[in-house]
Amino acid sequence: MTTENNDALFPKGNKLPNDWFSGEAFLNPLIARDKNNEFSAGSVSFDAKARTNWHTHPKGQVLIVTEGHGYYQEKNNAAQIIKKGDVINIPENVEHWHGASENTNMTHIAITNYKDDLQVTWLQPVTDEEYKTAIQSTENN
């Protein structure tokens, strides 16, 4: 008989500012931009109901979900459920948000490219109504 290791892949990290996130979200930096890498990577942990603001990336982003499940939504599109093992390739300059489900924490590795010195443009918060609509849209699919 084997037992599953339910320990987190990486430590939770430091709390992220509520200027860019609703709820409790944390970042554990993994790789910083340097002379060899035009990107950074970090493990981002979302407590249940936590989510990013709407935002864009000038050179795109890749998310690799390592724990739990949550949502990913591009502006003017239906939300999709994301879960452990999913890889989301976000095109450049696409307005989107991502975060945990109502009852489950979610962690993903975010690999974010730079364009010049810009990595992300933060926009308005995802409202509670937008979040509820996202949940309902995934329940109906």
Automatic annotation (TrEMBL):
SUPFAM superfamilies the record matches: RmlC-like cupins (SSF51182)
Protein name per its UniProtKB record: Cupin domain-containing protein
Gene3D superfamilies for this protein: Jelly Rolls
Superkingdom field: Bacteria
Cupin type-2 domain ranges (all copies): 45-107
PANTHER family: BLL4564 PROTEIN, RIBD C-TERMINAL DOMAIN CONTAINING PROTEIN
CDD domains: cupin_HNL-like
